[in-house]
Amino acid sequence: MYENPELGSEEYKVYKLLIEELEKQDFNVEKELLGIPTAFSASFKGKKSGPKIAVLAEYDALPGVGHGCGHNLIAVSAIGAGIAVSRVMKDLAGEVLVVGTPAEEGRGPSAGSKVIMADKGFWNDVDAAIMLHPATRWSVGGKALGIWQLKMEFKGQTSHAAASPEKGINALNAATLAYMATHMLRQEARRDSNLVIHGIITEGGLASNIIPDRAVCEFGIRSSDEKYLVQMVDKVEKCAEGAAIATGAKVTVTKKKLYSSMKPNIPLVKVLWQNYADQGVPVDDWMKTQEGIPMASTDFGDVSQRCPSTGSSISIGPEGTPGHSKQLADCSITKVGLDAMMIGTKALTMTMIELFAKPENLKEARSYFHSN
Ligand SMILES: [Zn+2]
Ligand SMILES: [Zn+2]
Question: Residue 220 contacts by C-beta under 8 Å, 6 or more apart in sequence?
Fold first, then answer.
């Protein structure tokens, strides 16, 4: 995978490799899951029906830096853990699922495939979903930011900028006002909401002697609080409407939810955390991780809103190695990186077995999910 990195929605080679391996290990594989060409769900059933526990694989790479997010290790850990658990399923009730979730980095028609699966109800009857992600620290749980995309298209009237400015309606002025108004929202943002607003003006006129009749702004709006995020997206929309009123321009606002924030599941965090700690790795105190400031967004957030879920991070290289870099990709094939993957795979394996063997853990996870 390191040598043949495939971009999101085009992960055909690795998709085939993973499926072949799972079929060889007697998994029942549903290919092209929900019509997503490089997604799959591989199932292995136990002695009788019972809980459904999923381990998630990602396998998309990044342009220019290959597996600079280390998704190669996510894929192998997921099928490794799934296969290991399948070996003892004859003594357990339930079903282990290895779910192949392509295009996590948001590229192509399968972008954010976990969200597509969430929208189609795939995660609703899953009792627990777990996974790992390469990083430079060991940790379990933690928040992620929900993200919306918002586009403002302003329509004005062109006119000669010197001879007849009074006949023009300046769409760029409207966009600039909206851009500044959006900036000003930050001052009154709730401080515990981890609100992030980032935006650009993508169109702003064609020549300086023509009053622009079209200008476009694009924003990303993020927060760790799902409900608050929706309110803030509405406020940004109001900034666009206000700017349109002020300038006489017309505005069309398009908003789209990309990823949900991460809904924590502390009972699951505790079980997974213990299975890392038992292997002697310096895993961060999970309470501190939970209180930490979330930096990014992931489509795993949408899984966590539908079923009890938790992620974990494995340390594959020196602290300070940037994410989405060639350096991190290189870490994924060092001894340190591969050893970390094995430890992570074992933690995922032991966690799933523990959840199958002691269903009270799952009950606790389920009631936590419904009460938070
Ligand atoms: Zn990434
Ligand atoms: Zn990633």
Answer: 147, 148, 149, 150, 196, 197, 198, 199
Ion ligand 1 neighbours, Cβ < 5 Å? 69
Q: Which residues pair with 181 in a beta bridge?
A: none
pTM of this structure: 0.90
The closest ligand to the CA of 133 turns out to be: 2
| Inter-residue contact 194 to 143 (CB < 8 Å) | yes
* Cα-based torsion angle of the residue sequence 299, 282, 79, 59 in order, rounded to the nearest 10 degrees: 40
pLDDT tens-place string over residues 153-207: 999 999 999 999 999 999 999 999 999 999 999 999 999 999 999 999 999 999 9
Token pair of 152 as six digits: 């403002």
State in Å: Cα 104 to ligand 2 middle. 7
Determine how β-strand 48-57 pairs with β-strand 93-100: parallel
Q: Amino acid identity, residue 346?
A: K
Cα 124 to Cα 232: distance, rounded to the nearest angstrom: 28
